[in-house]
Write a structure and sequence with these properties.
about 130 residues; 4 helices; binds zinc ion; elongated; about 50% helix; mainly alpha; single chain
């Protein structure tokens, strides 16, 4: 194990395999550090369950931010029909994955994701 703390940065689990999470690209393929430089400069360590949820949380945040822009009439990745479709599928997938998780995620509340899907469902993107 190569972790500084030896425990998961999200749930605090110790004595399990930890993964250093490099966030890399965001959901829309942009360099992640453009959005959140501080996050990528201090890499965190997560157990297997949390690293999966961290990825879901990242996509959730990316998609939320793009919906905010779309609703505000700004340039948004979601104004592209194929990206909008992909984002909607991803949000459904996140809900399914959270529902299947053994432990409630300390990182992402399923009610928040459900609300995000509701917002997506109220938006009509011209094809
Ligand atoms: Zn954990």
């Amino acid at each position: 194990m190569d972790s500084a703390s030896g425990s998961c940065n999200a749930c605090g689990a110790a004595g399990t395999a930890l993964m250093k999470l490099s966030l890399g690209k965001d959901f829309f393929g942009r360099a992640y550090d453009r959005l959140s430089p501080s996050t990528d400069q201090s890499p965190k360590w997560y157990c297997e369950g949390c690293s999966m949820q961290k990825n879901l949380q990242r996509d959730f945040r990316d998609i939320s931010a793009e919906i905010d822009k779309l609703v505000a009439g700004q340039t948004s990745e979601l104004s592209k029909p194929d990206e909008f479709q992909r984002a909607t599928l991803r949000v459904r997938e996140i809900i399914a994955l959270l529902g299947a998780a053994e432990n409630r995620s300390p990182l992402l509340a399923s009610t928040e994701v459900a609300r995000l899907l509701e917002r997506l469902n109220t938006i009509t993107v011209p094809a």
